[in-house]
Design a protein that fits this description.
The complex is a heterodimer of chains A (335) and B (335). Chain A contains twelve helices and six strands. With 335 residues, chain A is mostly helical. Chain A has a single domain, classed as MetI-like (MetI-like fold), CATH 1.10.3720.10. In chain B, helix 5 runs parallel beside helix 6. The chains are: A mainly alpha (335), B alpha/beta (335). At the A-B interface, helix 9 and helix 10 of A face helix 2, helix 3 and helix 5 of B. Chain A: Belongs to the binding-protein-dependent transport system permease family.
C-alpha cells in the first residue's frame, strides 16, 4: 500500500484545518477584529471612567459643571426653545469628559456605554454558552435515545416554542425581577445578572436543540455508530466519542448566532427595565435612558444602538465564516 | 503476508454459528409487514467461509446484522459457540462481541470521520480493557495497533491520520484491522468489496483469504458478485426474497446448480469467450418483499414453474451430499 503523499507525522485535525480556513476568510477576520475591539474597550471601562473621563458613571450629577474650552459649563443646560423651559443634558463634547454627552441624570454616556457593554456582552455570551450546553444535552438525549424520551422532550420544546420568545422571556423576567429567585438554600437577588442569563438561555433552547436533535438522529443511524455497537462500545461512550465530536460543529456554528440573538433579547429586556437593573447599565438600559431625550440628545440612544448593531453584525458574519470553515454539510468529505 | 499453511488445522465438528428458523419482520404503516428474512436456518463450521449471495434487497444484509445482534430477530434462534444469543441483554452480550465482528460495505461511513485511525482502532481495545483479568496497558495497546497495521499491510504512520486521507481500499483495510483488533473467531463481512474498484476488490478479497488462513477465522461473506464468492467461499448459500433457495459446497452450488434461480444467476455472469451461447435472462423484476408470491417465492419468474409451485412452498432438502435445494423440480440435467 502506498503511503499518503504528505509525510508529516500527524495530519491536521478537523479543528486545525477549520481554523486555517477561517484565517483565510477576510470578512470573518474583520468581524473578529471588531468584536475584539469592542470587548477590549468594554474591559477598559473602569480605566476610562477613572483616568480619562474622571467621572462616576453610576452617580447622578445634575448640578455639576465641567470646564469646556476654558469656560465653566453646566452639565444640565436650559433648552434652546423660545421659553427656555426645562433642562437638557450636555451634548457630545468630543473631549475626554462627556465625550458623547450626558444622560438626563448627568452621567457620562461614553463611560456608561463601556460599562453597559460589559454587562451586555457578558450576559449574551454566558446565555449563548449556557443555551448551547442545555441544547446539546436535550438534543443529544432526544435524538440518541428516541422513543418516549424523544416524544416528551419534543413536546416540552413545542410548548416553549408556541410562546413567542420575547413574550416568554418578559413573563419569566417579570416574575423573577420582583422577588428574585429562591432555589432551596440558594437565593438569587433580583439584580443578579444570572437571572437574565438563565432566562435568555432557556427561551432559546428549543431553537438550538432542534437542529442538534436532527443531526443526532442522522448520526445514530450512521454506519460508524453501528460499527461501535458491534464492537461492544457502551452507549455513553458512543455518545461521548462518536456523537458529540460530530455534533460539536453544529453547536460551534450556532454559537455566534445565538449570542447575537441573546444580545438582542438582553437589550430588549433591559429596555423594558426587566433585564439589567439600575444603577448598573447595559446597552438596553442606555437606550431606555435616551428614549426621553431622542429629540434633543439623540446620541444617548444612538450610541448603544450602534454598538448593538455592530456586535450583532460581526457575530453573524463570524457565524457564516465558521459554518464555511467547519463545513457542516461535509461536502468535500469524499475524494 | 504469505499464508501460513501449517497453522490451519481447525476442527470442523462444532459449528461456530447456528441459525435456526430466523425471521425478521418489519411492520410498515397500514398494517403491512415486510419479511426481510423469512425463515432461514444454517450452520457455519469453524474455519469455514460461508458465501451469502443474492440480488439487492433479498435480505442478506439484514440477515448479516441479525447474526451479530445489531438487529433483533422477530423469531428464531441464533447460537454462537453453543450459546443462544438471540435474547441476551447487551451487557451480557458485550464480552461475546469480542469473538464476533463485522466489516461493513461503506468503508467511509463505517469510520468516524473526526477520529484518527489509531484512536479508532484503540477503541475496542479500551472498551474490552481487560485481558485475563489484567488491564491492557497503554504500551500493550500501542503494540497491538502496530501488529494490526502489519496484518492488513498498512504503514504504521497511518495511525496518526484521519479516514478521509485514505483510498477506499485502504479504508477497508482499516475496517478489517478494527474488526480483527480483539482477535475474533467469526467475521461477518457485509459486501466488503462491492463499493471498491475491481482491481482493489481482488486485493481485499485476497487479504480476507490470507487472514482467514493465517488466523483460522470463520467468515460469513455477504456479496452479490458470484466471482468474489467463488474465490473465497467453502460453502455458498443463495438467497431469494428472504429465504435460502440453494445451499452447499461452492463447487456444487456454482458449477452444478440445480435451482432455476441459481442457474439464472450463474448464467448472467458475462463470459469473456467469443461464441458463448447467450442464455435467456430472467424475466421480470424481483417481487416486492411486502407482497410475496404464494407458494414458491420464485415461481413468478421461474422458467420451470409448474402448477404446484404457485401454492406449495418448497422446503430446503438435501439433493446430494453437501448440497441442499428448495425447489420441487430441480434442474438435475444441468451441466
Amino acid at each position: 500500500m502506498t503511503q499518503p503523499s504528505d509525510t508529516r507525522p500527524f495530519s491536521a485535525g478537523p479543528w486545525t484545518s477549520a481554523l486555517r480556513s477561517l484565517l483565510r476568510n477576510h470578512s470573518a477576520l474583520a468581524s473578529v477584529a471588531v468584536l475584539a475591539f469592542i470587548i477590549l474597550a468594554s474591559l477598559c471601562a473602569p480605566f476610562y471612567a477613572h483616568h480619562i473621563a474622571h467621572t462616576n458613571p453610576f452617580l447622578s450629577d445634575v448640578a455639576g459643571t465641567i470646564m469646556l474650552n476654558g469656560q465653566e459649563t453646566d452639565i444640565m443646560q436650559p433648552n434652546d426653545n423660545p421659553l427656555h423651559l426645562g433642562l437638557s443634558p450636555i451634548g457630545p463634547t468630543w473631549q475626554a469628559t462627556y465625550f458623547l454627552g450626558a444622560d438626563s441624570q448627568g452621567r457620562d454616556i461614553m463611560a456608561r456605554l463601556l460599562y453597559g457593554g460589559r454587562n451586555s456582552l457578558l450576559i449574551s455570551f454566558s446565555a449563548a454558552v449556557l443555551c448551547l450546553i442545555m441544547s446539546g444535552i436535550v438534543g443529544i438525549t432526544a435524538g440518541f435515545f428516541g422513543g418516549i424520551t424523544d416524544i416528551i422532550l419534543c413536546r416540552l420544546m413545542d410548548i416553549m416554542w408556541a410562546v413567542p420568545v420575547y413574550l416568554f422571556a418578559i413573563s419569566l423576567s417579570i416574575v423573577t425581577i420582583t422577588s428574585g429567585l429562591q432555589i432551596g438554600p440558594f437565593v438569587i437577588e433580583a439584580d443578579n445578572l444570572l437571572i437574565p442569563i438563565v432566562i435568555i438561555a432557556l427561551v432559546y433552547v428549543p431553537y438550538a436543540a432542534r437542529p442538534v436533535r436532527g443531526r443526532v438522529i442522522a448520526l445514530r443511524q450512521a454506519e460508524f455508530v453501528t460499527a461501535a455497537k458491534c464492537l461492544g462500545v457502551p452507549r455513553w461512550r458512543i455518545i461521548l466519542h462518536d456523537i458529540l465530536p460530530n455534533v460539536s460543529t453544529t453547536l460551534v456554528v450556532m454559537g455566534p448566532l445565538l449570542m447575537a440573538m441573546a444580545l438582542l433579547a438582553e437589550s430588549a429586556l433591559s429596555f423594558l427595565s426587566i433585564g439589567v437593573q439600575a444603577p448598573a447599565a447595559s446597552w438596553g438600559t442606555i437606550i431606555l435612558d435616551g428614549e426621553g431625550l431622542i429629540y434633543t440628545r439623540p446620541m444617548v440612544a444612538i450610541a448603544p444602538g450602534m454598538a448593538i448593531v455592530a456586535v450583532v453584525l460581526a457575530l453573524n458574519i463570524l457565524g457564516d465564516g465558521l459554518r464555511d470553515a467547519l463545513d457542516v454539510r461535509d461536502t468535500s468529505r469524499r475524494e | 503476508m504469505p499464508p501460513n499453511s501449517t497453522s490451519l488445522q481447525t476442527t470442523r465438528d462444532e459449528p461456530v454459528l447456528t441459525v435456526k428458523d430466523v425471521y425478521k419482520t418489519y411492520t410498515l404503516n397500514k398494517g403491512q409487514t415486510l419479511k426481510a428474512v423469512d425463515g432461514i436456518s444454517f450452520s457455519v463450521m469453524s474455519g469455514e467461509v460461508l458465501g451469502l449471495v443474492g440480488e439487492s434487497g433479498c435480505g442478506k444484509s439484514t440477515l448479516g446484522r441479525c447474526l451479530l445482534r445489531l438487529h433483533d430477530v422477530t423469531s428464531g434462534q441464533i447460537i454462537f459457540e453453543g450459546q443462544d444469543i438471540t435474547h441476551l441483554p447487551e451487557r451480557t452480550l458485550r464480552p461475546l462481541r469480542q469473538r464476533m465482528q463485522m466489516v461493513f460495505q461503506d468503508s467511509y461511513a463505517s469510520l468516524n470521520p473526526r477520529r484518527r485511525i489509531g484512536d479508532l482502532l484503540a477503541e475496542p481495545l479500551k472498551v474490552h480493557g481487560t485481558v485475563n483479568g489484567e488491564r491492557r496497558s497503554a504500551s500493550a495497546i500501542t503494540q497491538r495497533l502496530a501488529e494490526l497495521m502489519e496484518l492488513v499491510s498498512l504503514p504504521r504512520a497511518a495511525l496518526a491520520r484521519y479516514p478521509h486521507e485514505f483510498s477506499g481500499g485502504q479504508r477497508q483495510r482499516i475496517n478489517i484491522a478494527r474488526a480483527l483488533a480483539l482477535s475474533p473467531r467469526l467475521i461477518v463481512a457485509d459486501e466488503p468489496v462491492s463499493a471498491l474498484d475491481v482491481s482493489v476488490q481482488a486485493q481485499i478479497v485476497n487479504l480476507f483469504a490470507d487472514l482467514q488462513k493465517q488466523l483460522g477465522l470463520t467468515y460469513v461473506f455477504i456479496a452479490h458478485d458470484l466471482a468474489v464468492v467463488r474465490q473465497i467461499s467453502t460453502r455458498v448459500a443463495v438467497m431469494y426474497l428472504g429465504a435460502i433457495v440453494e445451499l452447499g459446497e461452492t463447487d456444487n452450488v456454482l458449477h452444478h446448480s440445480v435451482h432455476p434461480y441459481t442457474i439464472a444467476l450463474t448464467q448472467a455472469v458475462p463470459r469473456p469467450v467469443v461464441g458463448t451461447p447467450q442464455h435467456a435472462p430472467l424475466r421480470g423484476e424481483i417481487p416486492s418483499p411486502v407482497h410475496k408470491p404464494s407458494g414458491c417465492r420464485f415461481h413468478t419468474r421461474c422458467p420451470a414453474a409448474q402448477a404446484r409451485c404457485a401454492h406449495d412452498a418448497p422446503q430446503l432438502r438435501p439433493i446430494a451430499p453437501n448440497h441442499e435445494v428448495a425447489c420441487h423440480y430441480p434442474v438435475l440435467s444441468h451441466n
